[in-house]
């Protein structure tokens, strides 16, 4: 399974994350081409090679060509994402990051996520940072992200609401349940965007995942000059299929049984849970006490998202209690290849156990899009994609 480990010994920000991904092999031209699919303009991407305390790193920045930046709310940003021509994977992950940011800002300011008006994080550079990170992960085929404890720095930082303690209130809210630490180094080492990216993407925090083997080490530079290297170090490699214990990988199963909720609400709740960062949500018909038919709600989420999941279930459903269980995880190695059909490119997901391919499936969203664009039955596109996979495997063998 293609994995990256975020070594946040000097914190993390959006531009540091993208800088590290560029250093890991994402072409700047590819990043520029994908970002042009967003309906935003008047910015320029900067990439430079710099040295931070003797470490050669890639510095990435976004230069906005106009001084005025509109204040955007969550709906505005989701509209920008939905109107783009980016892949559904990039749209979905980016939306989860901004939903995480909106929830944190709302908690800090005593508002709701829909009412929050972003300032720094709603600007073009923040949108580019979030979407650009997802574009880079997609290009590298990253399937799993893990992270170290986060070094947040200390002191105060100036933002649109005035001088705030480090970590900034929104950052602190996002990092609930995530290990982080202070040092004497002054400055904001973890930004709200960096925190939201890490919490949304990372499956575990602490040491490297069991079985992980780094194949490349890359560095993304920050803007500060400190007495430590202001860089984000990422280890890119593979983690073998195997068993990860729940307490290490940080995965939890949250369950509750409900027999008195309007069925119309379940779909809405599922959308909210997935937007909050839940890995999976599903419903199971059950027979409850007094022979009442009910629904078992099951949510699979990272431990870092546990509070957000619980808050949604308590607020939006009629449950008064949750079961929270550690989850033992076992994963096959996964990779994605692209095959060409008569109607366009389709990504295909492979599941392997070592060198043995156990499953292959064409990406549904790619096939659906081509079916709609060309008026071809969905099953025909899926069949041709699998035929191309079979030919490719025969040729490579």
TrEMBL record:
InterPro entries assigned to the protein according to its UniProt record, in alphabetical order: Ni_insertion
Keywords: Lyase, Nickel
E.C. number: 4.99.1.12
GO BP terms in the entry: protein maturation
Annotated signal peptide: none
Reactions it catalyzes: Ni(II)-pyridinium-3,5-bisthiocarboxylate mononucleotide = pyridinium-3,5-bisthiocarboxylate mononucleotide + Ni(2+)
Keyword Thylakoid: no
Top-level taxon: Bacteria
Molecular function terms from GO: lyase activity; nickel cation binding
Gene3D superfamilies per record: mk0293 like domain, Transcriptional regulatory protein pf0864 domain like
Role this protein plays: Involved in the biosynthesis of a nickel-pincer cofactor ((SCS)Ni(II) pincer complex). Binds Ni(2+), and functions in nickel delivery to pyridinium-3,5-bisthiocarboxylic acid mononucleotide (P2TMN), to form the mature cofactor. Is thus probably required for the activation of nickel-pincer cofactor-dependent enzymes.
UniProt-listed PANTHER family: NICKEL INSERTION PROTEIN-RELATED, PYRIDINIUM-3,5-BISTHIOCARBOXYLIC ACID MONONUCLEOTIDE NICKEL INSERTION PROTEIN
Record-stated family: Belongs to the LarC family.
Name under which the protein is recorded: Pyridinium-3,5-bisthiocarboxylic acid mononucleotide nickel insertion protein
Gene: larC
């Amino acid at each position: 399974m293609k994995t990256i480990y975020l070594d946040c010994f000097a914190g993390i920000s959006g531009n540091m994350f993208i800088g590290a991904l560029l250093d890991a092999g994402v072409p700047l031209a590819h990043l520029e081409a994908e970002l042009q699919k967003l309906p935003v303009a008047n910015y320029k991407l900067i990439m430079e090679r710099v040295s931070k305390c003797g470490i050669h790193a890639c510095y990435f920045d976004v230069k906005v060509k106009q001084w005025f930046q509109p204040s955007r709310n969550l709906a505005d940003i989701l509209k920008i994402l939905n109107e783009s021509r980016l892949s559904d994977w990039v749209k979905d992950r980016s939306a989860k990051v901004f939903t995480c940011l909106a929830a944190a800002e709302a908690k800090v300011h005593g508002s709701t996520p829909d009412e929050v008006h972003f300032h720094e994080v709603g600007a073009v550079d923040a949108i580019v940072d979030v979407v650009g990170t997802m574009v880079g992960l997609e290009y590298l085929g990253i399937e799993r992200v893990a992270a170290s404890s986060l070094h947040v720095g200390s002191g105060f930082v100036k933002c649109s609401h005035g001088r705030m303690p480090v970590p900034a209130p929104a950052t602190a809210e996002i990092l609930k349940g995530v290990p982080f630490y202070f040092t004497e180094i002054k400055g904001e080492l973890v930004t709200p965007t960096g925190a939201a990216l890490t919490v949304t993407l990372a499956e575990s925090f602490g040491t490297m995942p069991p079985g992980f083997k780094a194949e490349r080490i890359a560095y993304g530079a920050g803007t500060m000059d400190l007495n430590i290297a202001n860089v984000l170090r990422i280890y890119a490699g593979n983690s073998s299929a195997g068993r990860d214990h729940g307490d290490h990988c940080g995965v939890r199963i949250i369950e509750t049984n409900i027999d008195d909720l309007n069925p119309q609400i379940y779909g809405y709740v599922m959308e909210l849970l997935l937007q909050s960062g839940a890995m999976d949500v599903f419903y199971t018909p059950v027979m409850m006490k007094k022979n009442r038919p009910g629904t078992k709600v099951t949510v699979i989420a990272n431990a870092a998202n546990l509070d957000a999941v619980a808050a949604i279930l308590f607020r939006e459903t009629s449950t008064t209690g949750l079961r929270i269980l550690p989850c033992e995880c076992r994963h096959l190695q996964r990779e994605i290849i692209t095959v060409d059909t008569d109607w366009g490119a389709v990504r295909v997901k492979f599941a392997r156990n070592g060198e043995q391919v156990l499953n292959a499936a064409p990406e549904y969203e790619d096939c659906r899009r081509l079916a709609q664009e060309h008026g071809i039955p969905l099953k025909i596109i899926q069949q041709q994609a699998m035929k191309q996979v079979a030919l490719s495997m025969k040729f490579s063998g």
